[in-house]
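Need a sequence for this fold. Nothing fancy.
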């Protein structure tokens, strides 16, 4: 840690959450479906705190369902309601296709 910030990492079967005092990064696994949604939600809410920027990495995610997208949008709303920064980055081709299929503007999802 070159910047001297304490970094904590939480790993589950469905995601990795890395957090410091200023930011929290959520890296999703290959599946983001109803089967993983509750575990992901519980872990991100336990590790993300108001004031931290939240970055979501979808580069490894290959399978989505509507529960996954509902959670993604609910997380976005929760973070923005708490006046924190929000960013989705590193979208897999499957993630891009899924968001387009449901007519969700990727630029809108990836805003700060």
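Here you go.
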């Amino acid at each position: 840690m070159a910047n001297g910030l304490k970094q904590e990492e939480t790993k589950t079967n469905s995601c990795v959450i890395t957090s410091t005092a200023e930011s929290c990064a959520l890296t999703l696994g290959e599946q983001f479906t109803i089967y993983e949604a509750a575990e992901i939600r519980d872990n991100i809410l336990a590790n993300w705190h108001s004031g931290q920027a939240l970055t979501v990495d979808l580069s490894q995610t290959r399978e989505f369902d509507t529960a996954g997208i509902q959670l993604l949008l609910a997380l976005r709303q929760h973070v923005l309601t708490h006046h924190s920064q929000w960013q989705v980055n590193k979208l897999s081709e499957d993630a891009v296709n899924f968001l387009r299929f449901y007519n969700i503007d990727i630029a809108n999802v990836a805003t700060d």
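For context: The radius of gyration is 13 Å.
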